[in-house]
Specification:
Distance between the termini: 45 Å
Number of domains: 3
Largest sheet: 5 strands, parallel
Strand order of the largest sheet: 2-3-4-1-5
Order of helices and strands: HEHEHHHEHEHEHHHHHHHHEHHEE
Oligomer: single chain
Number of helices: 17
Helix content: 40-55%
Radius of gyration: 22 Å
Strand content: 5-15%
CATH topology of the largest domain: Rossmann fold
Number of strands: 8
């Protein structure tokens, strides 16, 4: 393992959270199941509060955990395992010595038997820890394409020590075959966008209790229709309200008041997509609703159903309508729909 860079220690720290966050009983119940199941997957698109919900749960439960915020530079098995080992060492300093020794002897060309050895060493060293271990992998979508990391994690999940609880926060659900087995055994805890979005009562509570803003029932309905409970959109609207004459000003033209949100999405999501997906999103941003017919005939595409399915699976600016291949564009250039 030649030329290793120093680890960035801030990636191993639980993110700080603001006090302006509502505790929700249904979500809290699912988060508490983290210590009851071997694997928890928290899956939703950008800005739905996955990291915040996890950090809040850790704080409220006063729970010790090994936190690792993943970045795109960690998309190989050796840097990934180096950070994962360091995360566990924040609570258990003696963990990982055999694993690290073995990794230092490896080169960049990983063989299948080496992945098995890395998995065995990790599991065996985990068994030497006499207490419960909660490992949180945040922003897993940054390395979801890594073959070696996915193979290693599947090997781990096949032989998970009973006291190890793995939490994965991601925008895209992993395609691991072992998930079906875990689900059948009731060993998989899943938190989805549905669990993270705000309902009307929660939006009203957030505005009244934390921002001292009172709104009418009609305004609440409009605000909910604009955001569809999307946490980041609600937060940005709440920050914007004190600078407006009235809420009606925002409701009339919500897109003008959410420029920061658009910039966030461009930086955090759009700019990180492959050129083909960027081009497709740009070409279709004029539409509020999409279908395979629109893409194939108006845009002159072939096989657009695969692209629409990929965007839906990745939670990229599109929401599926029913079970069809049609979808609503959530980030269209001419739309006031921000959900």
């Amino acid at each position: 393992m030649q030329g290793t860079l120093p680890l960035i220690k801030t990636k191993l720290i639980v993110p700080g959270i603001q006090d302006q966050w509502i505790r929700r009983a249904k979500l809290s119940k699912k988060m508490k199941a983290i210590t009851e199941k071997p694997l928890t997957i928290i899956q939703a698109g950008a800005g739905y509060g996955k990291s915040t919900a996890l950090a809040l749960h850790v704080k409220d439960q006063n729970q010790s955990c090994c936190w690792y915020t993943i970045t795109s530079s960690d998309d190989d098995i050796l840097p990934f395992l180096s950070y994962l080992t360091a995360a566990i060492q924040t609570l258990f300093p003696n963990f990982g010595h055999e694993l690290i020794t073995y990794m230092k002897k490896m080169d960049r060309y990983i063989r299948e038997e080496e992945l098995s050895m890395l998995s065995s060493l990790f599991i065996n060293e985990t068994l030497q820890i006499p207490e419960k271990i909660i490992v949180i992998l945040d922003d897993f979508q940054a390395i979801e394409h890594s073959y070696h990391i996915n193979v290693w994690l599947e090997k781990l999940l096949e032989h998970m020590p009973g006291h190890l609880h793995l939490v994965i926060a991601t925008r895209t659900k992993p395609g691991w075959r072992v998930l079906a087995k875990l689900k059948a055994r009731n060993e998989l805890n899943e938190v989805s966008k549905t669990d993270l979005i705000f309902g009307k009562e929660e939006i009203e509570l957030l505005l009244s209790d934390f921002h001292q803003i009172s709104i009418s029932g009609d305004q609440l309905d409009q605000l909910y229709n604009i955001t569809e409970g999307w946490v980041i959109a609600i937060g940005m609207i709440a920050q914007r309200l004190p600078h407006l004459q009235s809420l009606d000003e925002l409701l009339a033209e919500p897109a003008k008041s959410l420029e920061d949100l658009f910039q966030y999405l461009v930086y955090e999501v759009f700019s990180k997509q492959p050129p083909m997906i960027q081009q497709f999103l740009e070409q279709t941003s004029i539409f509020e609703e999409l279908s395979t017919d629109v893409c194939d005939h108006i845009l002159g595409m072939n096989g657009s159903i695969q692209m629409l399915e990929q965007l839906t699976a990745k939670n990229l600016f599109i929401q599926q309508i029913g079970g069809s291949s049609s979808g609503i564009m959530l980030f269209s250039a001419n739309s006031s729909r921000i959900g």
